[in-house]
Amino acid sequence: MRRRIGWVAFIAVLCLGWHPSAQAQETEDLMALLDETAPPETPPAVGAAFMGTRLVQQPSPRLLPPHHLHFVVSHRFGALADGTRTFFGLDNASTRIAFEYGLNRRVNIGVGRTTFEKTFDGFVKVGLLRQGRSPVTLTYLSEVTAVGLPWPDDGFAYRFTDRLHYVQMLLVGRKFSSRLSLALMPVYVHRNLAPAGASNDVAFVGVGGRFKLNDDLALAFEYSPRVWGRLPDGTAPFGMALNIRTGGHVFQLLLSNGRGLTQKHVFLNTHDALATGRLHFGFNLYRVFSPGMHHKTAG
User: How many CB atoms lie within 10 A of CB 8?
Assistant: First the structure.
């Protein structure tokens, strides 16, 4: 009899010590503690702030997605102010054909050939920061060009390295709204052989932006004044463009005060000051090849 009473008392204590509401409260307290100590979720990256990999003549902070390929054809013509004598500059055309490829989410590479000065170029573009995970998108670009023109017959002992030019750029971009994106572009240019009176090293600070009109149209501009170094026959590059997206193509119609097709030419070979009104018509055409041939370009 006493043994039976002992078991009854033991079971009663267990029942009184455990209650569903008490367990629920403990669970809620534990979840609240975990929420307080858990690391914050990483915010999603902001969608593409620029329609293409170039603003106008200069690169934008945008990177190609992994394994996407751009086939690029660019043309620049003579000054519109030359009138009918050169058919408004169309008789004086320069052409660049290039390929750009996304190695992975952070690295793009590209190669090109330009008729102007028979120039070969190559670049590496590296994504350092992306807006959403940081206040801005930050991209680094390094370009090297080799001029292929024959050396003048002036008795100077030229070397191959005298043909080389190097451009380093930081591309800082921010998307302020679904329509407006702006960019800041510090630029450093080095050339191994400079003309008399000019510096081997020159620096610029560029500004640019894009205003989206609709899903397939956008306006873009850029302006890059020189801030350091001597460039007696050069002036600040300026350009404005209408960007058009259609299917697997991005098409840019542009006006600029130079005929630059590589960054070396944009910064060292722009000679028509904006105040003279000597603008040049040109265009960039991008053919997009993506995995599975799904031609889609984010805007």
Answer: 10
For 154-171, the pLDDT digits (tens) are: 889 999 999 999 999 999
Angle at 140 (CA atoms; ends 136, 142), nearest 5 degrees: 160
Over residues 238-275, the pLDDT tens digits come to: 999 999 998 778 899 999 999 999 999 999 999 999 88
**What would the CATH number be for the domain defined by 69-293?**
2.40.160.40
- For the record, the structure tokens of 201 come out as 């090293």
- 217-223 and 238-246 strand pairing: antiparallel
Domain boundaries, the chain: 2-37, 69-293
Q: Which of 97, 117, 118, 121 has its CA nearest to residue 109?
A: 121
Token pair of 147 as six digits? 């001029």
The number of residues in the chain equals 299
Amino acid at 88: F
38 pLDDT above the threshold of 70? no
What is the rounded CA–CA span in Å between residue 9 and residue 229?
Answer: 95
26-34 long-range contacts, CB within 8 A, separation 24+: none
Encoded tokens for 292: 């599975």
| CB atoms inside a 10 Å sphere around CB 200 | 13
Residues 6 or more apart in contact with residue 61 via CB below 8 angstroms: 49, 50, 137, 138, 139, 171, 172, 173, 183
